[in-house]
Structures are given as C-alpha cells and as structure tokens.
Amino acid sequence: MLLNLFGSGKESMSAVDTAWLRMDRPTNLMVITGIMFFEGHMDIARLRGVLESRLLKYQRFKQRVVRTGTNAAWESDPDFDIDNHLHRVALPGDAGKPELEAFVNEHISTPLDFGKPLWQFHLVENYQGGSALVARIHHCIGDGIALIQVLLSLTDKEADGDSAPAPKKLKFQAGEREPDDPFMRLYKPVAKMYAGVLKSYGKVLGTSYGLMMNPGKIAEYTQTGLAISQGLAKLAAMPADPRTKFKGKLSTAKRIAWSESLPLPEVKHVGKALGCSINDVLLSCVAGALRAYLVEKGQNVDGLDIRASVPVNLRPESKLDKLGNYFGLVFLPLPIGVANPIERVYEVKRRMEEIKGGYDAIITLGLLSVVGSLPNIVEQPAIEYFSTKSTAVMTNVPGPRDPIYMAGNKVSDLQFWVPQSGEIGMGVSILSYNDRVNFGVMTDKKLVAEPARIIERFGEEFEKLVLATLLSVVDCPPDPELAELHLAVLRMQSEAGKHA
pLDDT for 81-91, tens place per residue? Predict the structure, then answer.
C-alpha cells in the first residue's frame, strides 16, 4: 500500500499510474478499448452476475479518482451502481461490422466520466447473429497485460464455468508463453535485467550498508549506472521521427479498424522456415502494410524508417496478480523503406536483436515515475518531447490458446486497441487467441480517415511473405515446414476464389 497522503478512506495513486492519468487529453484519451465477440446472444442478467462476482472483487472498479495539486488517489464511489457502467445497445441497419465500427468510433473519442470509476461496458445484443461486449477501461487502472488478464478472469474454459466459485486470485499468464511467441524474445531478457537493476539500485539508494559489506559490488553498480546514463543520453539525442501521412497535428476524433485474423500455425511455419521469430514475421507485415499505404498516398518511402513505441512488460514477480502499470517503452525503427518482404523480415530481426539487450524500457519506466511525481506543467512538455520521437504505439498481448466462455457464451474472437500519448496519432495492436492472430489499428481521423485501408494490407503482406519464402527455397531439399507453407498458399488461394 502506498503512503496515504489524502486521509482516511483514500489510497494514493502510484507515480507511474498518475503519469498515465495526466496524459489524458481531448486529442488522445488514455483509454484501452477491447471487444469480445460471442457466438450466441448474451444474457445480460447472467453477465451482470459474472461482473459482480469477478470484476468487482477488484476494488479499483468501484473506486473513482480524486486529484489535489500534483497528487492523485483512489476513493470508493459512494454512489456506485453497476448499471452506470454496464449498458445494453442494439446496432442499426444490418448490425454488421460497419455498424459496430461506427459504434466504437463514436465512443472511442468520448471521455469517461471522472465522477465515477473509470470503466464502461456496452453489450451489443445483435451483432452478426450473435453479440459483442465493448469494454473501455482507463489506462491509469492498469496496463494492457493487467487489463487483458482481468477480462480473461471473467471467462471460463467451459460453458457452465461461471456457476463455480470465482477464483480467489488472478493468475497472470505473461510469463507462460512459447519461446517464439510475439514479443517474447524482447520481454524475457529485459524483464530479467529490470529485476536485477531494481535489486542493485535498491541497495545503492536505500543504504550504503550493502556496499560496505560487499565492496566487490561497486564495479557492478558503476557499470549499471553508466549503462543507464548512456541510455538516457542516447534517448535525449534521438531525433524526431520524419513527417509522414501518419504524423501531424491531431484532432479530437479517432477511427478504428480490425483485420481478418491470420492462422498462428502458418505464421510459425514462416518464422521457422526463415529462422525468425513469430514477432519478426508479424512486425515485418506491419511495416509492409504501412509502406503500402504510404506508397498509395504518393509518399516517397525510399530509405524511410519510422519508429514505433513498443511497451515492454516489466512486471515484477511480486506484482503478477496486481493492477497498475508496470511497463517501459522501447523505440523500434520499422524498415518502411525495404520493399522485399524477406529482406524486411531479416532487417526487423536485426533491429530487434539490437534493442533487446538495452536499458530503454527501464529508463522510460523510471522517467514515467519521475514525471508522475512532478507538477503537470512539467509532465506535459516531457510527454510532448518524447512523443515526437515515435509515429505509432505498437503492442502485443497474448490471449488464450484455447476457446473460452463468458457467462455461458462462447467467445468467438477478441480484439483491442491501444491508446496513444502526446502527439502520436496511430496505434497498432496485435492479439493472439485460439491459434489466430488479430490486428487492430487506431488512427486520428485528420491523419488517416480510413484505417481499414491499412489493416486490410496485413493479410496481403503475409501472403507476399509466404510466397517469397517458398520461392527463396525452391531448390532446397523438401522440408515439413515448407510443405505446410505450400498448403497454406493453397488454402489462401481457395479462400480468395470463394470471395471472388
């Protein structure tokens, strides 16, 4: 429990969570938005029961934010009513994807009510013969890893699972990922290093006793401090990202789109055939899609790199079942200027290898803690400054490998969108579920009015990479992975024929 600065009944907000709270602005709301799609019609009474027993056991969802000067705190909402947060709606017209996109677009640009707990669910009762749950939760409550796990704690592995007692403790799955899962190659080394740095600096900053008793540790501390100092200098000297169709003055209107999902096994086959991770393959597809959009808009992309701010999970073992924000950021230059899909995936791999051993994520988490402790007049220029160094926020969250159920209804798919800070105008979200990979894009309407023009290219770029991979190894001996890729091409051609 943090030191209580607000008196009885209030809990002080952490400095990092306060930083995310104060990033909220009309042009970029700090709200994470997600959708659960259901095969059948959701019973709202049963859904309400699940929320009351499983969501509201976390006090955060019954607390509102109070602010005084530079500080912020959580206090119980004396008038809390779940009906202020759970709404039922019906889509107009054909009640299909365009209508749901329009509904989300309308709400994604609308601030949450700060007089109440900062979350809101809308049950869409008539989506494509089934239903959908649109969830909006403010970033100060938790980061993407925490919030996706909270939502998953509302689900079960069987249709009647909600009749059993609610789990006593939330179990996070961030560390239970396959070695080649998205972002795992980045997460593990940095997370381990972060834990070591915290331990070292806890001794240095807390007392000199550790050094007196262990003088041999001085070199270790000095080396760590030097590395962080060099990282800070490098970050400060990083130039602003180039101006493209994705970067400019923002409006107060956002637009979202989501893709048809990619089969995760086929993404794995491509990665294995090329000696790359799933993450390398997916990020290469993102870079290719952004490149294709810029080319369509007449922009010169020769030699172009644009940076993506990539959240890296730094959640300590002691915080695995806690809400709040425990992540730093790394700046990944996407090789937009590389046209060849195979060259591009290897370039992504090379750049990821360069990043994963650095201290960038630790430094940015520390900076967020510092600015969250300072007056807002100091934080805002700092956020503006660092937001010039990126064009997009890009994040990946692992979902369940097997189908799940919520309030007796099978979840057919999952989707989410990451918010952007400062003057960043685009967010790219990747989410895996049930052996599929989904992409979501959020853009500023003034910069990219139709993000669907970007999102539809992810699948196209993956197909190009599959074909290029097959052609590049045409003279090699038969390989099971390549055989699977060949079958994947046949399946994609068959699907294309059906829709022709």
Answer: 999 999 999 99
The number of beta carbons lying within 10 Å of the beta carbon of residue 151 is 21
Work out the average pLDDT over 376-393.
76
Mean pLDDT, rounded, for 175-204: 42
Q: To 10 degrees, the CA torsion angle through 352, 293, 274, 270?
A: 120
The region of weakest confidence among 166-170, 343-347, 401-405 is: 166-170
Structure tokens that stand for 115 in this block: 């007089």
Total-model pTM:
0.82
Euclidean distance between CA atoms 452 and 375, whole angstroms = 39
Distance CA 353, CA 364 (A): 19
Please provide the distance, in angstroms rounded to a whole number, between the alpha carbons at the two ends of the chain: 59
* pLDDT reading at 174 higher than 80: no
Q: Rounded to 5 degrees, what are φ and ψ at 69? A: 60, -125
